[in-house]
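In this supplementary section we document a worked example of the pipeline. Step one takes a protein sequence of length 493 as its only input; no multiple sequence alignment statistics are reported here. Step two produces a three-dimensional model, which step three serialises into structure tokens for compact storage. The input and output of this example are shown verbatim.
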Amino acid sequence: MKVVLAFEVHQPTRIKKGFLWDEVMWTHPKGRLKEFYFDEEEDKEVFLRASNKAYKPSNYILLKALDRQKGEDRGLRVAFGISGTFLEQCERYDQDLLDTFRQLAQTGRVEFMEETYYHSLASLYDDMEEFDEQVKMHAQALWDLFGISAKFFENTELIYDDQVATHVASLGYKGIFAEGADRVLGWHSPNYVYASHGTPSLKVLFRNYRLSDDVAFRFSARWWSEWPLTADKYANWLASLPGQYVGLFMDYETFGEHQWPETGIHQFLAALPDEVLKHENLSFATPSEIVQHEDPVGEISIPKGSTTSWADIERDVSCWLGNAMQWAYFRTLQRLGRELAGYSGEEKTLWRYFQLSDIPYYMFTQGGAPGEVHSYFSPYPSPFDAGVTALSAIWDFESKVRAKLKVADHPFVFTLEGQNTGLVVYTLNGIIQGVKKAPEKSLREHLSRGDISRWLSEELGLETLAQTVRTIDPERSDFREELIRALSTALPH
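The serialised model returned by step three reads:
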């Protein structure tokens, strides 16, 4: 039995609590847009507290254990999923912490997994273009900071379905983590490797949520029948499991922030590697090592409508998309993405901060134990305060984007023989990018009918440009290039 020990490391950027109530909405920012909407002071305070209580002590513990077991073939291996926003805050607030992650990377026994840079819900969008961009950004950050190229994928909060799997496989990854939800696995064990439905080249590793949550949520719970949980007891549980591996995946903040140091959580982490090796049938492995050496025992299918995640007891996406506030926010995000298509300025970057999955997570309105968890993480007094704040901020931001980029009220939709091609644009930047991507036959149809010139005139008020576009002959071999040149002349300099 291989023990896969994996941690998610993430810190969000928080929208200012008083954005609406302090009458900031509809005013003009005097500095950077990010500082206008997001609370850097609170971000820094939370980050440094977590760094001192959780991240640095845990990193030092792992470094010592890795060094202690470096000559042992069965010795400690660790995997991290680190969001781009966490890496940014690391660089800005605590370079010493970043150095400890570099030291972990240099051991050769720590794997860094790929994910979306902004810990976003981009894999749930109508198209995967933004998802791809964030994955590229994250890959570049890992290379720049640690000199590594990730081979294994873990989507935001382990969001997974067949569509996500197919796309991740198309990007070249050989393995992905998913939540071992009972409604998906049924009688199957999460402790085996499975092939993704429709993409057998992608191997799926499941998180054993019971054993993971024993540490992440129940470690200090005195009502729990297994309290106190000790490293030797936990290792005994692992040694008794059937299967190829056990996926232990939890928030890294578990070790010192969610479970305070006074609970003994750091002592547990320090003792666990040695306790595991006391059992001859146990050894540590990274996710990529499991993918490389273990064959799938079967295929797993999770259709789009049954998308899983590790969030809450439902283990689906309802924690982000379960009420009207969350859907309004999510739809605004996607609309903004279309309005910003082809644009690469400060507004595009800020839109990506608004994509943090934490923001709609704070709007969760159900009660009970899941509601308590959401409230614990939220910086806002209630989910309704979170919703009002986030929607006010993003709608204010959209108004500024529309004013600056001259966004059309009605989009231009690229079609082919009367069918929507999926290319929908709202701005001059957007239509330039659309012209670059659209099928040649689609462009010829639009030029022949005068669709593009009509839209430029009626929606953007660019009559001179519209007249130029009308003169472009769609039968010329270089008509696409000529059209792009003409449209580009009207871009603001």
